[in-house]
Amino acid sequence: MEKVNVDALFLGPKSENEQFLKEMITYMLDEHIHWRKDFHPEDKPAMTEEEKRSKNFQDTLMKTKEALDELSAKLRKSSMPWFSPRYLGHMNSDVLMPAVIAYVATILYNPNNCAYEGAPATTSLEIEVGKQLAAMMGYDPKTAWGHITSGGHVANFEGVWFMRNMKSIPLAIKKVKPELIKGMDEWQLLNMKSKDILDLVAKTKELNIFDEVRAHSVRGTGVQDGQLGKLLVPQSKHYSWTKSVDILGIGQDSFINIQVNDKFRMDMDHLKETIDDLISKKIPIMGVVSVVGSTEEGAVDEVYKVVELRKEYEKKGISFYYHIDAAYGGYNRSIFLDDKGDFIKYEDLKKVLHEKGVVHRDIPWPSKGIYDSYKEMEQADSITVDPHKMGYVPYAAGAFLAKDKRATDLVSYFAAYVFAKGMSDENPVLLGSYIMEGSKAGATVAAVWTANKVVPLNVDGYGRIIGRSHEAAGRFYNSIVALDVFKAENGKTYKIAALTQPDFNLVAFTFNELGNTSLEKMNRLTLAIYDRCSYVDGPVYYDKFITSHSEFTPESYGNAPLSFLKKLGIPASEYDKVKSVWFLRSCILTPFLEHNTSYQNYWDRFLGIMKKIIADVAPKN
Question: Which residues on neighbouring strands pair with residue 292, listed in sequence order?
Fold first, then answer.
């Protein structure tokens, strides 16, 4: 297919596409207005022209305008400029015009996707979007399941919900129909493969005992202390995972943090050691979570190694549920897909990316490990992905995807698919019966659906947008490495170092005065720079770039930051003493970082501003 033009998809840093946006929003508003007028035209208007001319009526309209004027002033004064290439902070960016127009148009219809009768149009779209996102992840859309959530939090909660209920089903079957699992002890039941569990569930349906079995699962009895085993999650996890074990009754004691290595990916040696230790103690592994695009470092866990590890353990009768938190990095899988949805061969990929102009040939991305990790995502039992991050869709739009839609039976509060007369199995009457949320905006679904319609989930669609962010992040990292040391305007020499080469489009870095060995002093410099380059400093119109920051501590990251500190001239003993490393964090989502200018000029501007800021804020001692 013909490649999309990225510049035509966004309003733009200087509202370059304002005319089109105005025209299309007006057009969609007119469509809605005519829809109302054309619905039973024989009905009389609810208000007369005379009433509309009355003082009270006009005063109310004026009060509305005044409130909107005040809101506009507040928004313009205090909102963050995600659209600007100067914004290099959190994982926010400009949003796709097709998604914005679709959202604005749909919100007037006010569909509620909790139930089909509350949203006939957008419920159908949600099922379609779920299949599209599942296919992007390598799942078979005919047998997978997916839906839109309010964000990664809820999608991760649903991952634990599915995992928890599934792992308890074999024990419930033993209570209700033990002959179905004859000869299997509790250890074997808690180590069944996900597919085998769902095959058993199918048998209970055939025997008409499924409801009874489900009542004896954790859904009915609650989670017994430690019975389902441990949940293993890397230190780079999003904080929603800590919440999930609390909310779903699994408990913090069942949560094990797996160390990350100096690339901030899950340490596979520690994962294996942990699993082996648990097995030796006859403690089952309820599930393992990998992170694809960590929110602090942009790291991509080695998914292919986890997949291989699970296969090896399954030969020994040990299995676990596998979930991938790809809230941030999930859409990146589109860059590996051709126009037929097939995963491009590694030996062809870089040639494709370079020839299509998706990523410049001087950016050595992706590595074979990152490629293999994205390829093997299709082996996970479920995946979290957020359209409102790398999908460039307005908030709030997360998504939960399951490899096997039969798993929805384990969480539903009616039959997983309940149909109205004449409806196909593509349109569940009550979507809210087997998702974690109830009422939910159909406008969000419309935004995601329209975005996918305009921007295909492949290398020629989303790949072109995301490729720009990879290229910018790669050049940002290369510039930091090449610069190494520089003189600020205070005459002092400073070291700049990046945390690690980006797996994704996030660059973490900080500065340290050359020769300084005090971590406390370096932290003060980092925090002072952040204060000047963030909303903390007030209005965001000054001549500066806007960034975010974060912190490493031994409690959350162990010794992983030591290699970063070494680059900056800080000894390990300082980390032991201070127990905190602050750093600057730039999620480079903007597709306009290098637009109509050379990156070197952009980097020179960035460095020039930083030289001034460092001179102003650097600690005196």
Answer: 300
Q: Cβ–Cβ contacts within 10 Å for residue 228, how many?
A: 24
SS3 147: strand
- 315 Ramachandran zone, left/alpha/beta (phi>0; psi -120 to 50): alpha
What CA–CA distance (Å, rounded) separates 131 from 109?
Answer: 24
Active-site residue flag, 417: yes
Domains with residue ranges and CATH for the chain: 130-454 (3.40.640.10), 466-617 (3.90.1150.10)
E strands present in 43-166: 87-88, 145-149
Residues 6+ apart with CB under 8 A from 510: 496, 497, 522, 525, 526, 568, 582, 583, 584
What lies within 8 Å, CB to CB, of 596 at 6+ separation is: none
Residue 457 carries which side chain, given as an amino acid letter?
L
Q: Which residues contact 56 (CB under 8 A, 6 or more apart)?
A: none
Q: Which residue has the tokens 């479920």?
A: 382
Which of 2, 1, 10 minimizes the C-alpha distance to 468? 10
Residue 545 scores a pLDDT above 90:
no
Mean confidence (pLDDT) of the chain:
92
Q: Please, which residues have CB within 8 angstroms of residue 250's CB and are 6 or more apart in sequence?
A: 160, 164, 223, 228, 231, 244, 286
CA–CA distance, 536 with 529 (Å, rounded to integer): 11
Residue 554, C-beta contacts closer than 8 angstroms, at least 6 positions apart? 575, 576, 579
β-strands 398-402, 382-385 pairing? antiparallel
> Among the options 304, 371, 417, 477, which is catalytic?
417
Pairing of strands 581-587, 546-552: antiparallel
What's the rounded Cα separation, in Å, for the pair 565 and 568? 5
Beta strands in 420-542 (DSSP E): 485-487, 493-498, 506-513
Enumerate residues 6+ apart whose C-beta is below 8 A from 187: 282, 284
Give the distance, in angstroms, between the CA of residue 64 and the centroid of all CA atoms in the same chain.
36
pLDDT one-digit tens code per residue, 376-433: 999 999 999 999 999 999 999 999 999 999 999 999 886 544 444 445 555 556 788 8
Q: Which pLDDT score is estimated for 600?
A: 56
Ordered DSSP codes for 284-326:
-EEEEEEEBS-TTT--B--HHHHHHHHHHHHTTT---EEEEEE
What pLDDT is attached to residue 414? 67
Spatial distance between the Cα atoms of 346 and 366, rounded to a whole number of angstroms: 9
Q: Is residue 537 predicted with pLDDT exceeding 60?
A: no
- Segment 468-495 shows an average pLDDT of 91
pLDDT bracket for residue 543 (50, 70, 90): low
